[in-house]
Write a structure and sequence with these properties.
Strands 1-2-3-4-5-6-7-8 form an 8-stranded parallel beta barrel, surrounded by 4 helices. The chain starts with 9 loop residues before the first strand and ends in a 6-residue tail after the last helix. It is of the alpha/beta class. The protein is globular and about 50 Å long.
Length: about 300
């Protein structure tokens, strides 16, 4: 089975740098986007969990899309999170995102209210009907409280502009069946499972660790799709300390700390997230070094 990746193979969910007072560092947004392009990315996802979307305003999200689009070459796709636990808001944000220039939408399962599968399906269909943009469904039950079940994914995969699935379910057996049944392009949404999901048919990654090890992730993808599984495994094992270390606490917190270590504009977090402690930064520095990231 050959499945084409609709947004390229390497995507990172980008952090949103804030200054100490909580304002967005717009120059930093552009610089981070350019850093991702320089480290092998095919696309950038903004306004996701790692971008602290729960604490940014709709107007800020739209400006982030514009700034990133202006900062990167035209062949780099810019996806944006537009999902919410209210379908009507999600539909309107999808329309606004399209008007702001987004190339695709990352739509998460409605969270907290735990809708039944019929409601989840109706939610995604409503968003798809409201926009011409290609949509990547985002299945992350650990955050939303409810999964998109296999049969629901299979029905939604028939919607013309639902073109991919970001899989952070942590259940490769279920993902295997989804790929076999639908052929939908699946992107790994959990860095430590990247290679495992490639082995069952995923087409690429929506990473967090791509901030620090984008070149390595690109090399893993290139090796895998060239048929060099031993090389892909070698890279996976090299990066295990980074995959583990980035998520010792919430991923945006430590990714921002890592960017600051590397002289890039990670900036600060917005409450209720809090910045990494000195002890967390020291541990992260060691994790990154063990994974081959050159930090001081």
């Amino acid at each position: 089975m050959h499945i084409e990746p609709p947004f390229g193979r390497l995507i990172t969910a980008m952090v949103t740098p804030f200054d100490k007072d909580g304002a967005i560092d717009w120059d930093g947004v552009a610089k981070l986007a350019q850093h991702l392009v320089a480290t092998g990315h095919d696309a950038i996802a903004v306004n996701g969990t790692t971008g602290e979307a729960p604490t940014t305003k709709s107007s800020e999200k739209l400006e982030i899309i514009r700034v990133v689009k202006d900062a990167v070459p035209s062949h780099i796709k810019v996806l944006t999170g537009a999902g919410d636990n209210e379908t009507a808001y999600t539909v309107e944000q999808a329309k606004r995102s399209q008007a702001a220039g987004a190339d695709g939408l990352l739509i998460v399962t409605p969270y907290y209210n735990k809708p039944p599968q019929a409601g989840i399906e109706a939610h995604f269909r409503a968003v798809a009907a409201a926009t011409d943009l290609p949509i990547m469904m985002y299945d992350i039950p650990g955050r939303t409280g409810v999964e998109i079940e296999q049969d629901t994914i299979c029905r939604l995969a028939e919607v013309p502009n639902i073109v991919a699935l970001k899989d952070a379910k942590g259940n490769p057996a279920s993902t295997s069946w989804v790929i076999k049944r639908t052929g939908i392009p699946v992107y790994s949404g959990d860095d430590i499972l990247n290679l495992i999901l490639l082995s069952v048919g995923a087409v690429g990654f929506v990473s967090v660790c791509g901030h620090t090890v984008g070149n390595d992730l690109k090399a893993m993808l290139d090796a895998w799709f060239a048929g060099d599984a031993p090389r892909a495994l070698e890279i996976h094992q090299k990066l295990l300390p980074v995959f583990t270390g980035t998520f010792r606490t919430q991923g945006a917190i430590l990714t921002k700390a890592a960017m600051n270590m590397l002289g890039l504009p990670g900036g600060y977090t917005r409450l209720p997230l809090v910045d990494a402690t000195e002890a967390q930064i020291a541990q992260l520095r060691e994790d990154l070094r063990q994974g081959g990231v050159p930090v001081n």
